[in-house]
Amino acid sequence: MAPRHAQSPARKSLTRRGKAVSGLALTTLVGTALWAWPASGDDHNSHPDAKHGTPTTTSRPDAAAEAADPEAAAAFRPIPGLSDAARKQIPAGTRQVLVVTGQGVNATSSAVILYTRAKGSQNWRPGPTWAAHNAAHGWTKDHRYGDLRSPEGVYALTDAGGRLAAPRGTRLPYDHNNSFVAHGTGVEGEPLAGAFDYVIAINYNRVAGSSPLDARRPLGASKGGGVWLHVDHDGPTQGCVSLKPAVMKELLRTLDPAQRPVIVMGPPGH
Question: Where is there biased composition of kind Basic and acidic residues (predicted)?
Answer without folding.
Answer: 41-52
